[in-house]
From TrEMBL:
Protein name: Cell division cycle protein 27 homolog
Family: Belongs to the APC3/CDC27 family.
Keyword Secreted set for record: no
The keyword DNA-binding appears for this protein: no
SUPFAM superfamilies reported in the protein's UniProt record: TPR-like
Taxonomic source organism: Anisakis simplex (Herring worm)
Origin: domain of life: Eukaryota
Positions of TPR repeats: 92-125
Gene3D superfamilies: 2.40.50.550, Tetratricopeptide repeat domain
Keywords from the named record: TPR repeat
InterPro entries for the chain: TPR-like_helical_dom_sf, TPR_rpt, TTC5_OB_sf
Signal peptide: none
Length: 377
């Protein structure tokens, strides 16, 4: 049995590292190769498990687990796992594997039911994270805003529970990072703390010794998106490159990496060339800026003032808000990170187009990626 379990791990490793070893292959070629590696494992199931009627549920579970390594839906996998839960409804792993199998078939509601039944037998990290993902899927599909918010809240709670069960589990931390990103975009990007927590959760997932998660293009691509939002381009490129190596086809990881490289190159060139403005034009800009009076008009002061709220719940309460005046500063006074309550008067010297921007809308492609397109968590 130990030999079989080792071969199962090798098959999973082969699947997860496939594009790193075969960078020019297609998704269809990967699917075929993984299946060819998996099917023979069914013959390696020990005779004591295959031949004993008392352990037939275990045999069906093991067979279904093996077939679930395949990247695409396998009808035989569903048959084995369905039989396993009928023979022994207390097999929490069988319910989980059946949920994953049905997920590949895009039967989300039944998959959710399977994850819930797995958790009713035993609270486990895999089912908690998969159920959280499924609930985020349902939140996107419902037109009821309140219901969608409730589903996202429940998904976040499940991810937090997973981390509480095992604070050294990479899958749990990765799922929690996804929950924070979802909360960030679904709340109109008004609370940067969500993105900060997401980044910390992803970093925790990467530091935990879990080879499967470290080989997940999902984790590296999501982490790269969080890094890009914070404009940490060096680390962003690093993890985009890793994601493109692990699966260049996953959400165009390779194209995203190349696109960001081109953007940063153009941005650097624009700075060096001062936006390609002629010296005479730059002098005109400098004179125009130096002639701006330091004492602003009343209308300008009103425009530059803003109301700062301690929290979103206080927006409708006049006695909980305070006014702050923005202070003018120059570029040399800015520091890395957020610069609050200041403004700069300047001139636009050039514009660098960016085809792959981090979105500013809730229903953006990135938002759908974080919540709709997760494969594992």
């Amino acid at each position: 049995m130990d030999v079989l379990m080792e071969r199962i791990k090798e098959a999973e490793h082969f699947r997860d590292r496939y594009f790193k070893e075969h960078p020019n292959s297609t998704l269809a070629e990967k699917s075929k190769s993984v299946r060819e590696r998996v099917i023979p494992l069914l013959q390696d199931i020990p005779l004591e498990i295959r031949g004993s009627s008392s352990s037939s549920a275990d045999y069906c579970l093991l067979s279904g687990t093996i077939l679930n390594i395949c990247t695409e839906y396998e009808p035989e996998c569903e048959k084995y796992l369905t039989k396993a839960v009928k023979l022994n409804p207390r097999l929490t792993n069988a319910w989980y594997e059946l949920g994953e199998c049905l997920w590949k078939r895009e039967d989300y509601e039944i998959a959710i039911d399977c994850f819930k039944k797995s958790l009713s037998v035993e609270r486990n990290i895999k089912s908690l994270c998969s159920l959280a993902t499924a609930l985020r899927q349902m939140a996107l599909r419902t037109k009821d805003a309140q219901k969608a918010a409730e589903l996202r809240t429940e998904a976040s709670r499940l991810c937090a529970e997973a981390v509480e069960l095992d604070g050294e589990n990479a899958t749990a931390w990765y799922a929690l990072g996804n929950a924070y990103v979802t909360d960030f975009f679904s709340n109109g990007q008004t609370n940067p703390l969500y993105m900060k927590k997401a980044r910390e959760a992803y970093e925790k997932a990467l530091t935990v010794k879990d080879d499967r998660e470290s080989l997940s293009p999902d984790l590296h691509l999501n982490y790269a998106t969080a890094l890009k939002f914070e404009q940490d381009f060096a680390k962003c490129l690093q993890h985009l490159f890793i994601a493109s190596e692990l699966d260049p086809h996953f959400f165009d990881a390779k194209e995203r990496y190349e696109s960001l490289c081109i953007y940063l190159k153009h941005f650097s060139e624009a700075i060096q060339r001062k936006g390609r403005l002629k010296s005479k034009r730059l002098v005109e800009f400098q004179k125009a800026l130096s002639n701006i009076p330091s004492n602003k008009s009343t209308q300008q002061q009103q425009f530059l003032s803003r109301r700062v709220y301690r929290n979103s719940a206080a927006r409708d309460s006049d006695d909980r808000k305070e006014e702050k005046q923005l202070t003018e500063c120059d570029f040399e006074s800015l520091h890395e990170g957020p610069n609050e309550d200041v403004y700069i008067v300047g001139k636009v010297c050039g514009i660098v187009p960016n085809a792959d921007t981090v979105p500013l809308l809730v229903h953006s492609r990135i938002y759908e990626y974080f919540t709709l397109k997760f494969r594992h968590c």
